[in-house]
Design goal:
The chain has 257 residues and is α+β, with helices and mostly antiparallel strands. The protein contains eight helices and eight strands.
Length: 257
């Protein structure tokens, strides 16, 4: 099994996310993008469904296809995820969110606004009054992003620890009223190549920035759950490394030093 290095884990511990280059082979990237484009050409997109697709997934009929699922399950991405959470502890991936961001004509584009997954909105499919959190967000770039402001996946570094402190004071149920009311750091836009992955702690604020380029941004996001997550999902918001057995050495080193 392939492993992330101590320094890579340390970066994730500190920042709440980690980008790893050249994880998914080009042939698999192209196969996934072809399947998506074929679906869009065959099924089309009705304007009234666009808001729902942005919040949940484009091309929902192929979310569980081999071309999508294998981006994680048949590449080192799965090993890297297990090296963080613990070998054999993750539920297998069965589908992914196909996340496209189309060019905007807004000039200038509005600044990005962070969110946490699993909180109800009218279009994202999360039931009202429920919190559907998870363990680890794994994103796969399917198109090159050499520059910012091209629909880039965007994170707010170190917010995983800020939000942990907030929920210890206010309880996890406060997420149902909106984002934590804390002073946010500057956002960081992920640039990179198709085939790169990004591993993100669930409790790190994130979004996709507006796309002012002339290209569609292609990416897939997978929500990974440790086995038994539902039994202690609220506890994980108060103890953000509770499920992360593969991080024990880093946590011990950082907390002792």
């Amino acid at each position: 099994m392939m492993q992330l290095s101590f320094d890579q884990k340390k970066s994730l511990y500190e920042q709440g996310f980690l980008q790893v280059a050249n994880v998914v082979p080009e042939v698999m990237v192209k196969a996934a993008r072809k399947r998506i484009n074929h679906s869009l050409g065959q099924e089309g997109m009705s304007p009234e469904q666009l808001t729902k697709h942005r919040a949940q997934s484009f091309a929902p009929e192929i979310q569980r296809s081999e071309e999508i699922v294998n981006l994680v399950m048949k590449t080192p991405a799965w090993d890297y995820a297990q090296s963080l959470i613990g070998e054999g502890t993750l539920n297998p991936v069965t589908g992914g969110q196909i996340a496209l961001r189309f060019p905007t004509l807004l000039d200038p584009a509005p600044p990005p606004r962070p969110h946490l997954d699993g909180m109800h909105t009218p279009t994202n499919g999360v039931p009202e009054g429920k919190i559907q959190n998870f363990t680890l967000l794994l994103g796969v770039l399917l198109s090159d992003l050499p520059e910012p402001n091209a629909g880039n996946f965007t994170v707010w570094p170190r917010t995983h620890t800020l939000f942990e402190e907030y929920y210890r004071e206010h309880t996890p149920e406060d997420l149902m009223t909106g984002m934590p009311r804390v002073k946010m750091p500057e956002p960081h836009q992920i640039c990179g190549k198709a085939g790169d992955i990004v591993l993100v702690h669930y409790q790190t604020g994130h979004t996709a920035c507006h796309n002012v380029s002339d290209n569609i941004r292609y990416a897939i996001f997978f929500r990974l759950y440790r086995e038994g997550h539902g039994d202690f999902c609220r506890e994980c918001m108060l103890d953000i490394w509770k499920e992360w057995d593969g991080m024990r050495d880093v946590i011990a080193a950082m907390q002792s030093g």
